[in-house]
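Hi, here's the filled form for the chain we discussed.

Project: internal
Contact: R.S.
Residues: 253
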Amino acid sequence: MKPISLAIQEIVSFLPGVKSAEELEKWLNNPSSSTQTDVVSFNRLIPAIISRRLDKGSLFAAEAAAKIFEHDSPSYIIFSSRHGELAKGEKILTAINQGSEVSPADFSHSVHNSASGIFSIAKHITAPVTSIAAGGDSFHCALIDAVAALEDGAQSVLVVDFENILPPLLGRSFPHASQSFCYAIGIMLKIGTEFSFSPSFSRNRATLLKGCHIQSSSYKLPSSLQFLRYSLLRSREFETFGGNSTFTWRRYE
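And the returned structure, exactly as it came back:
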């Protein structure tokens, strides 16, 4: 597939333990050091009365979108997450198994688009909003959807990728090693030539990674955080890896 070009207008991230430029630099050098116990501090833009039931990663996602929305109005909005509110699903199934009453709040927040829905309600969003789950390729698929929207006439597209901590029981069903922290990253995209990427998809993991130059500290991260790391390091050429995909990036500025 030929390279796809785009420009990034703004990036907002919620990373555990990162509250300053010094902490961000530390994270860039050792991103695998983050844990779920690290504190993420921020000024709430979405009232707690409507967001308090969200899991932490979903809350970060809604807040990241709200922060960008303070001074930008995207034409199209995409939320992506591999697991979404899976912990809420486990809580509901556990209650049913124990013969307990299911919480209506847990039920209403157990859907994959909880974060995007709360954000839309809080900020009175009228632009189209979608929520993508595509396994380890969720962020990459969100980017492809974003490029399609830009090519179709959207002036700007907001992509928000996030993840929650996997719950203890259902989490065992997934063969991949999950990161031990919640995160969210919001990226405002426009048509431009700042970056280009060439996507490659293969169900054969060995074929996908053959010939790729992998830096282990980045490869172990979700693909959106791989991109964030390389972007902040201002790398000229790099690769981000998903479950069945590799995006080869080039920076032109």
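Let me know if anything looks off before we file it.
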